[in-house]
Automatic annotation (TrEMBL):
Protein name as catalogued: UDP-N-acetylenolpyruvoylglucosamine reductase
Keyword terms: Cell cycle, Cell division, Cell shape, Cell wall biogenesis/degradation, Cytoplasm, FAD, Flavoprotein, NADP, Oxidoreductase, Peptidoglycan synthesis
Family the entry assigns: Belongs to the MurB family.
Location of the active site: R166, S216, E286
Native source species: Eupransor demetentiae
A molecular-function term among this protein's GO annotations: UDP-N-acetylmuramate dehydrogenase activity
HAMAP family, per the entry: MurB
Main location: cytoplasm
Subcellular location: Cytoplasm
Catalytic activity: UDP-N-acetyl-alpha-D-muramate + NADP(+) = UDP-N-acetyl-3-O-(1-carboxyvinyl)-alpha-D-glucosamine + NADPH + H(+)
Alphabetical list of PROSITE patterns matching this protein: FAD_PCMH
């Protein structure tokens, strides 16, 4: 169906859009092409009293088989990136973090090298305070623009972002991230490129990039590494349905044979239970698990 010329898909499977290639149906799903369409869709969801779910590439996420009620918005078309001053790049929420890191390289700005291989979007990185290889979103994001559910654009300064370990204020306030400003440091092309290449090499050599996955599944327990705990529990290769604890990196779970969102969740619970039994350590998920069972 269409709302003011915007296509809204009904009973749409989520799996084709998800990095895990798993997940049930969305009642409604739309991909706004610009900020005006996003505002229209927010207004429609409010008028219909629908639950709202906003994503970029649906990475770092498990959607259960029962799917999501309400309206799912995928912001992949909101992907503009521009340089706004000598040290700042502004990127829309749907821009791939990898692309933003490459734009920073083009402008000879350092600080986003850690994002050169992360398969997520700017909005997701801000929402989860993503990080890797010694870098993190809160180290470089200086401001964020977000829409309230009433369609009002609100500016968040750095001290209003509420960043913590895999946390931000946007997990609580219900606003929709529209863009973020990355304030970086001048450097030179070769130095930036070398660090990006090093990070990408480390990622390719250690992570199971040949299968769909949900990224690093668990937060790092204090004083431990989740992957080491899982490996020591002899859980690599352990499987629920079509999802398996990666044999290459124990901190990842991979979709090797038409796995479902429920398979991911069941496997997560298996791992948590076993690590708790052996080490009395509670593994807390870094990935978000959402939807109906």
């Amino acid at each position: 169906m269409q709302v003011n010329g915007i296509e809204i898909l009904e009973k749409q499977p989520i799996a084709p859009y998800a990095y895990t290639q798993a997940g049930g149906e969305a009642d409604y799903l739309a991909i706004p092409k610009n900020l005006a369409e996003l505002k229209e869709l927010l207004a429609w969801a409010k008028d219909k009293q629908l639950d709202l779910h906003v994503f970029g590439r649906l990475s770092n996420l498990v959607v259960r088989d029962g799917g999501l009620r309400g309206l799912v918005l995928i912001l992949s078309e909101l992907k503009e990136v521009q340089k706004v001053d000598e040290q700042t790049i502004r990127a829309q929420a749907g821009a791939d973090l990898i692309w933003v890191a490459n734009q920073a390289l083009k402008y000879e700005l350092s600080g986003l090298e850690w994002g050169a291989g992360i398969p997520g979007t700017v909005g997701g990185a801000v929402f989860m305070n993503a990080g890797a290889y010694g870098g993190q979103t809160d180290m470089v994001v200086s401001a964020v623009e977000a829409l309230t559910k009433d369609g009002q654009l609100r500016h968040f300064d750095r001290d209003e972002l509420g960043f913590g370990y895999r946390q931000s204020v946007f997990q609580e306030n219900g606003t929709v991230i529209v863009s973020a400003d990355f304030t970086l440091q001048a450097s030179n092309h070769q130095a930036i490129q070398e660090l990006m290449d090093e990070n990408n090499y480390r990622r390719a050599s250690k992570q199971p990039l040949n299968y769909p996955s949900n990224g690093s599944v668990f937060k790092r327990p204090v004083g431990h590494f989740a992957g080491k705990l899982i490996m020591d529990a002899d859980l690599q290769g352990h499987r629920e349905g079509g999802v398996e604890v990666s044999r290459k990196h124990a901190g990842f779970m991979v979709n090797i044979d038409h796995g479902t969102g429920n398979d991911y969740e069941d496997l997560i619970h298996d791992v948590q239970k076993r690590v708790k039994e052996l080490n009395d350590i509670d593994l807390e998920t870094e990935v978000r698990i959402i939807g109906e069972r």
